[in-house]
Design brief:
Layout lengths: L4 H14 L3 H14 L23 H9 L5
Helix pairs in contact: 1-2
Length: about 70
């Protein structure tokens, strides 16, 4: 197994701090990574009034209105 330099440094630092072996240090760092999950923000759709109402019942007509007749 080959560890990246930053990971190897973290393993060595933990081994020095706690006096543990290689496997114990690697396992501890992996477990810490598994527990520390970044918080997820709830997606919220933001809308802005455009002053344009589009009837999407007729898709071709809606595309012509939004993109122009040469838009396709």
């Amino acid at each position: 197994m080959v560890l990246d330099d930053d990971v190897a440094a973290a393993v060595q630092r933990l081994r020095r701090e706690k006096g543990t072996g290689l496997s114990a240090a690697v396992n501890e760092l992996i477990r810490a990574g598994l527990v520390a999950r970044p918080g997820h923000r709830r997606f919220e759709q933001r809308t802005q009034p455009m002053g344009l109402r589009v009837d999407v019942a007729n898709v071709a007509e809606a595309l012509d209105l939004l993109e122009g007749p040469d838009g396709r």
